[in-house]
Amino acid sequence: MTKNSDRAGRRNAAPLLDGVQDTAVRADRRLLLSSLLLLVARGDGDISEEETDSMISLLSSHLGLRSAEALESLTTTLNAAPEDPAVVQRLRDAGASLSPSQKEEVLAMLLEVAGVDDARIASEHQAILSAARVLGFSADEVAGVYWRYFDER
Known about the structure:
This protein is mainly α. The protein has a single domain (3-152), classed as TerB-like, CATH 1.10.3680.10. Helix content is 74%, strand content 0%. The protein is built from eight helices and no strands. The radius of gyration is 15 Å and the shape is globular. Residues 1-12 have low confidence and may be disordered.
């Protein structure tokens, strides 16, 4: 398989990027997903190895990234200034550009990271609620996705 066909294959296997050709929109969705995953992973005070592995796997499968690219995305996002109003607006815009099913998919990914260590603590739940607000979910909608996600596990 050539490098170009490998990239095309990864692009087709990236549900959160389906139909998105604009490079800036693709970058913003990558920033959004990396930021939200990190927010939830740090919800309990630190990021475990299991959470890191889960985030890399999720970024790889949902954005079509190689593991090294996913790790780089997480590292870059960790070093960014999340309180910068321009970054916050990019995150909101990226969240608004997702379809309802893509937003629910992202929320399920956040729950997966939170549940990887089988600890459900209040601070992680608050991080999930904060992330869900960026996506435009209400607390009731989050509860519905939460229960569906954990019922299916």
